[in-house]
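Dear all,

This email documents one entry for the complex benchmark we are building for the journal club exercise. For each entry we list the sequence lines for every component of the assembly. Then comes the predicted three-dimensional structure of the complex as a token string, followed by one or two observations. Please use this as the template for your own entries, and keep the labels exactly as they appear.
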Amino acid sequence: MSSNSPILAIDAMGGDHGPSVILPGALEAARQTGARLLLVGEKNLLEELLPGLDTQGADFEIVHASEVAGMDEKPSDILRRKKDASIQVACRLVRDGRADGVVSAGHSGASVACGMFIMGRVAGVERPALASILPTEKAPVVLLDVGATVDCKPYHLFQFGLMGHALARDLLGRETPRIGLVSIGEEEGKGNCQVKEAYDLLKMATQIHFAGNIEGRDLFTGNVDVAVCDGFVGNVALKLSEGLSMSLSRVLKRELLSSGVLPKIGTLLAKSAFKRFAKVVDYAEYGGAPLIGLQGVSIVCHGASNSKAITSATRMAALFVEKETNKRLVEAICANEELTRYGRSC
Amino acid sequence: MSSNSPILAIDAMGGDHGPSVILPGALEAARQTGARLLLVGEKNLLEELLPGLDTQGADFEIVHASEVAGMDEKPSDILRRKKDASIQVACRLVRDGRADGVVSAGHSGASVACGMFIMGRVAGVERPALASILPTEKAPVVLLDVGATVDCKPYHLFQFGLMGHALARDLLGRETPRIGLVSIGEEEGKGNCQVKEAYDLLKMATQIHFAGNIEGRDLFTGNVDVAVCDGFVGNVALKLSEGLSMSLSRVLKRELLSSGVLPKIGTLLAKSAFKRFAKVVDYAEYGGAPLIGLQGVSIVCHGASNSKAITSATRMAALFVEKETNKRLVEAICANEELTRYGRSC
């Protein structure tokens, strides 16, 4: 749907901290963007919480949903059995044209499943992709897929490149984003079977700027705007980055604390350094991972999201609606329809 | 071959810095371990260099090789056309029983190809694996494969687990190393097709301790001793770790330098912190990646290796010979022969 300002369905029940974190985060984004919010969740609970929150300048209404997707439930079970789970209700609001997009910090697998089977795929898109926006030393880079599609055919990777193009264009403000294919060597012909074939397709693609293979070490240099890989590789890469950043900062902290050299100044410096340091690995900066290739906008947030992350994610959803990112995505997919068909027949 | 002390063929010509770095590194290891070295390379060049080096207490001889594998040549071309390349000659010394192992910092692809086709695989091993020893906050972890076999069947991953067991046992001194399978969720049933099937095989394996799936973030926690993945995932993970560590340390350095708060103390602290920091990502600690599953020992070093890294790699080669790691590897492979066959038939 399309209106003057974006209408966003917020899964108010999702996330480790629930509505007390989701609501203030989303309301702040509503104030900043002018988006209208449909706060989806247990009506009584939300109505109890709202008077204690700063709702001024935010346009919202509550949409009741009696159930919540449990973190230990299977996505398929949530989809089949919990018809009134907040994430299902939110996705139906998009499907029915009552909202332009959905934001959820709940069960990621459920967000992907409900997005795919309730909102549905964009015509021509074979598989959706979950995109993570990684901070780098220069500009951020869009890494996709990070877990929506783990077993990929070469033409899936190819389409991730096309979709990444549309996403990075609007999100990073780059006219022609540089698309890199994650591989194990820069030269053409390096990689596993899927990557080698995807390379051939991307090389022939129209409308996009394919920059060739990139290696793992290039992910954080910012030399490409989009990094394409299958959902298995992307998920491992993303979680590895989180884990390594945390490990390194723990080691460093320990070292600075035990250095003995003017400990107070050490702590001061450390705080200052860590601020910047943390920025590089601060996933709250963008707040969530866009799930793309769907009819409508969907942002999947980390379960541990704080209010700031929810604000960022909601703003990102509003941006994609305003920029009509899906239109551009459809253009790129359509312009390369023949190549996708060719890839599928290989 | 087997003798009182290990005999190691050293590719003296390999690496970005050539014999002037390889020789002193290897000689130091010979002194430390009592290993006998066969220094393989251009005889005249090596004879010119040796008088300027500390050779005391090192047992060595020169084996002439007239050619060098170029870094821009294809491994298959080196294998077919450069019969007298130092890496080929070194691998033939192992094949012919004149040496127990080979150490090279030359063209990695050539080391893998020559190892596989000249030294040959251990009977029962389907594919060799390149293992990287990652430093973690606790004990090091063996990650394999990091690039020898990029297109993996489930039973290849299964065998990597068995080989990783033998390696970690001798290298990390753990009686029953914990084997983790790299996936995108800890629960059984998470992963791509290959990983799900490999899980089933590993669960049934005898002689090893399979600890289940691990995620990317667990790689640097040290909660498993061996992390199993295909060569594509492992290579991306390894290079990503290198790249991210370097990025983070650059950001931190910049921050400390520009903090303005008593810059000298900042630098002091930074130096101290960086020392420990670098240790976490110091790949010279172990020096090289064991290429396992071959008849004989092979250590593949980084092209940029310094002498310290070559010393570490040569010591590691000597350790594997002394511990007869390949015997243990064969035991684990044989004990699980039926399972491998079952996996191959799936």
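Observations: The longest strand of chain A covers residues 36-41. Residues 231-258 of chain A form the longest helix (28 residues).
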